[in-house]
Amino acid sequence: MADSMRGSRLGSTSYEVDKGLRVPVQLTTYICPNNHHSTFPFYADAENIPETWTCECGQVAVKLGATMPIQESPRVRRSHYEILLERRSEEELAELLEERIALLHSGGVIRSA
Ligand SMILES: [Zn+2]
């Protein structure tokens, strides 16, 4: 097996693995939607490096260079109001609002005072 040392420049990360470790490693970076970067060393010949990683914040971090799994349409994010408008017309919303206000005035809903 060729003993190439081309893995010797692994960047400035200071993980403990670089001391006394003879097995070549590759650093794999994961990025979560909150832009947290997590970098882990994997054996260079590892075949099952996970595509995703659960970030400390709980979000799913995606391997750098991997295809981002698209869950939402890449269009401009819609506001809650726009989503609401897809389900109900403005007239319906106005009616609902009046209903709620009427309920509030009639004491049908728990008041905060
Ligand atoms: Zn995160």
Q: What is the percentage of strand-forming residues?
A: 15-25%
Query: Largest sheet, described in full?
Result: 4 strands, antiparallel
Question: Would you tell me which CATH topology of the largest domain applies?
Answer: Rubrerythrin, domain 2
- Count every beta strand, where a strand is a DSSP E run of 2 or more residues: 4
Secondary-structure-based class equals alpha+beta
Radius of gyration equals 26 Å
Text of the CATH class of the largest domain: Mainly Beta
- The rough form would be described as rod-shaped
Tell me the series of helices and strands, N- to C-terminal.
EEEEHH
Low-confidence stretches: none
Please count the helical segments. 2
Tell me the name of the CATH homologous superfamily of the largest domain.
Answer: RNA polymerase-binding protein A
- Our count of domains comes out at 2
The main sheet orders its strands as 2-1-4-3
Give helix % range: 10-25%
User: Based on the structure given, which CATH architecture of the largest domain is correct?
Assistant: Single Sheet
Bound molecules: zinc ion
Secondary structure topology:
Elements: E1 25-31, E2 37-43, E3 52-54, E4 60-63, H1 80-87, H2 90-105
Antiparallel strand pairs: 1-2, 1-4, 3-4
